[in-house]
Amino acid sequence: MLAEDIFNMTMAMIDEMLTSGGLDAEATAEYRAKAPSILTMLQTELIGIDNRYRDKKDWVYPVVIERLEQPLQVDDIKAQTLLTNGLAAQLMLHEDKTLANYFEQRYQEMKGMFIKPTPRKPETREDLYDATLNY
Questions:
Q1: Mean pLDDT, rounded, for 105-132
Q2: Which residues, in sequence order, are CB contacts of 66 under 8 Å at separation 6+?
């Protein structure tokens, strides 16, 4: 998924999409300029959290998003839910605090839901000390 896709979804969420389905380039220019830096920050946060549950050899190292035409490093579900809400919250921060707060709450709620460790199979452990308790 491209950063452009997340940007377009976010513009629809904050009511900047035209009835034709397109974007007004002049009205969204400031958002477009800020989006790569914000998406880099959000993506880096999510990758850092995911890396805690990976072996060091499997870590993903975030790449800076410089253009909206770049692909994202997070999976599509996280991109379409977490990144859209996080981007909307950051873009609305100076324009509509109520809307920014709403999107930030959604972002935090979804982050708690999606960023959880996957359960591992229980390990069998050898009882070296014969620690069975008999009463």
A1: 78
A2: 36
